């Protein structure tokens, strides 16, 4: 028996959680958060309660109600029946976006996880530097446990003592999960480490695209994946369709050209915004910096990620490159490099993971940028706009917004606020240039025509019915309903 059950990613962009069962093997393809469903009930300041373990999420169907997959500390705390053994052979992660991996937080630590080195590094960065308190993707921190301290008193277990590393397997080429042979094929998306999978089930090969595109820095790898998928003559292809209703042609090359032109015409400071872990976009702005003889100034979270990449020997740019600078913001007391205070007090303004960058050869402060504005491209997101008060962009400075258009009221309000800041600092009007991480209508059609799967299953799209234009055997999944292959 071979079957697929979709527990997310149905009629929505993201939230992929696809159970694949093949004879004795059970595995999940991604285990992400459904942003639309989560935002239906919760928001930034109204989050599921940790003390209720998985129950607040089960209440609204944010997590599937399955046995043998959830972390025991949460089950025990909520007096749910304890589960001795895991019921999954593994979880295959396509890439490190939250709509594909965030709910790993709730999984048992003994479930083997499979992903690329790039994806693992990004998840490590999310664990260590993310602002959400529920990121335990690389190691689980056991909750609701106590121990007896040296004084003989009961104490809460936390920090390093509570850490239990998850079981990661770095994927490359071909490997096995349970009885299944799986191929990992790298694809271009918008961040390092995205991969598609081909699963050789007893019913025949099943292809899972993850999120992918042809443009960007690994477009050739996407083309190789499509060729390989065609070669295996799959019984089913689970294909993402984020932009299946759009024919707009996007290109990362075009982003670079427009940005370069803008930078060349700017005499003062160039301020840019692009998503914090969008490593393809970082690469684009880094290249623009190289070509215009400026340095791209990144924040501490990005520096942390580049340091992990350097240790793993993957990705570009290198953190120690001449065209990279690491921005050290003022935090808490704001006394970094203030000689009225000892080095110890200065350090205490920063989290432990941030401290290693304070004396990095590429570290810069607002003062450094302010004094040499024509030498920098300063990445500054919504929360970092405050830095402009210290940097004081001079006349002739410009702003490039390189993120997607707002798609809800909240984002529109945020954009209005950004525009107020830009006007205040003489950075308005600004340039907007962005390219999506996904295929458009024509590209998806071409992929389906090339691969020719026996069945086509859309995922990660609000318009699954459009797939019927490409194939006469389209299976539209329903949440929690098994599809036999
Ligand atoms: Zn996605
Ligand atoms: Zn993605």
Q: Mean of the pLDDT scores?
A: 96
**Unreliable residue stretches:** none
Instruction: Kindly report how far apart the N and C termini lie.
Output: 8 Å
Largest beta-sheet details:
7 strands, mixed
How many H/I helical runs?
15
Tell the overall outline.
globular
Please write the CATH class name of the largest domain: Alpha Beta
Strand content: 15-25%
Q: Can you tell me the number of structural domains?
A: 2
Alpha-carbon Rg, integer: 24 Å
User: What is the percent of helical residues?
Assistant: 25-40%
State the total count of DSSP E strands.
24
Going by helix content, strand content and strand pairing, the class is alpha/beta
State the strand order across the main sheet. 10-5-4-3-2-1-24
Name the CATH homologous superfamily of the largest domain. Answer: Ribonuclease Z/Hydroxyacylglutathione hydrolase-like
CATH topology of the largest domain: Metallo-beta-lactamase, Chain A
Describe this structure in words.
By secondary structure, the protein is an alpha/beta fold. The protein has two domains: 2-245 and 438-484, 4-Layer Sandwich (Metallo-beta-lactamase, Chain A), CATH 3.60.15; 252-432, 3-Layer(aba) Sandwich (Rossmann fold), CATH 3.40.50.10710. The chain has helices at 35-41, 55-59, 72-77, 98-101, 117-129, 219-231, 252-264, 279-291, 300-312, 343-347, 352-355, 366-371, 387-391, 409-424, 441-451; strands at 2-6, 17-22, 25-31, 90-92, 113-115, 139-141, 146-148, 154-156, 163-165, 168-170, 174-177, 180-186, 195-201, 204-208, 236-240, 270-273, 295-298, 324-327, 363-364, 376-379, 398-401, 431-432, 455-459, 482-484. The chain has a seven-stranded mixed beta sheet. The protein has a seven-stranded parallel beta sheet with strand order 19-18-17-20-16-21-22. Strands 11-12-13-14-15-23 form a six-stranded mixed beta sheet. The longest helix is centred in the C-terminal third of the chain and has 16 residues, at 409-424. It is globular and about 70 Å long. The structure holds zinc ion (2 copies). One zinc ion binds at residues 95, 97, 189, 211, 437. One zinc ion (ZN) binds at residues 14, 97, 99-100, 211, 460.
């Amino acid at each position: 028996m071979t079957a697929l059950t979709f527990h997310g990613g149905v009629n929505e962009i993201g939230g992929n959680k696809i159970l694949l069962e093949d004879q004795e093997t059970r595995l999940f393809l991604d285990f992400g958060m459904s942003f639309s469903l989560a935002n239906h009930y919760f928001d930034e300041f109204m989050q599921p309660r940790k003390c209720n373990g998985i129950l607040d999420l089960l209440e609204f169907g944010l997590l599937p109600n399955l046995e043998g997959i959830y972390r025991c500390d949460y089950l025990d705390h909520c007096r749910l029946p304890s589960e001795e053994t895991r019921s999954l052979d593994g979880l295959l992660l396509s890439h490190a976006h939250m709509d594909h991996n965030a709910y790993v937080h709730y999984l048992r630590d003994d479930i083997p996880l499979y992903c690329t080195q790039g994806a693992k590094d990004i998840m490590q960065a999310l664990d260590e530097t993310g602002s959400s308190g529920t990121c335990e993707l690389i190691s689980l921190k056991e909750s609701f446990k106590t121990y007896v301290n040296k004084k003989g008193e009961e104490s809460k277990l936390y920090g390093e003592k509570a850490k239990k590393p998850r079981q990661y397997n770095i994927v490359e080429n071909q490997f096995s999960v349970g009885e299944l042979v799986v191929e990992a094929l790298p694809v271009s998306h918008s961040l390092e480490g995205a991969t598609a999978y081909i699963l050789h089930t007893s019913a025949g090969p099943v292809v899972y695209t993850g999120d992918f595109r042809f443009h960007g820095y690994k477009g050739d790898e996407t083309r190789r994946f499509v060729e390989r998928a065609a070669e295996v003559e799959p019984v089913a292809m689970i294909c993402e369709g984020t932009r299946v209703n759009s024919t707009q042609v996007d290109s990362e090359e075009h982003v670079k050209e427009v940005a370069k032109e803008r930078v060349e015409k700017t005499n003062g400071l160039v301020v840019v915004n692009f998503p914090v872990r969008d490593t393809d976009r970082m690469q684009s702005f880094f290249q623009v910096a190289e070509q215009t003889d400026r340095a791209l100034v990144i924040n501490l979270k990005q520096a942390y990620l580049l340091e992990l990449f350097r240790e793993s020997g993957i990705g570009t740019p290198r953190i120690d490159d001449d065209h990279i600078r690491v921005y050290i913001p003022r935090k808490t007391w704001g006394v970094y490099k203030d000689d009225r205070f000892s080095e110890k007090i200065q350090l205490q303004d920063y989290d432990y993971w941030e401290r290693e960058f304070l004396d990095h050869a590429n570290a810069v402060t607002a003062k450094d940028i302010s004094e040499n504005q024509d030498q920098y491209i300063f990445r500054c997101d919504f929360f970092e706009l405050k830095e402009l008060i210290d940097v004081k962009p001079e006349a002739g400075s410009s702003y490039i917004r390189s993120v997607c258009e707002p798609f809800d009221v909240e984002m529109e309000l945020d954009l209005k606020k950004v525009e107020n800041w830009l006007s205040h600092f003489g950075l308005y009007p600004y340039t907007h240039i962005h390219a999506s991480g996904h295929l458009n209508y024509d590209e998806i059609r071409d992929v389906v025509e090339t691969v020719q799967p026996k069945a086509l299953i859309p995922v990660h799209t609000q318009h699954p019915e459009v797939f019927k234009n490409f194939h006469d055997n389209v299976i539209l999944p329903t949440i929690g309903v098994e599809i036999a292959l």
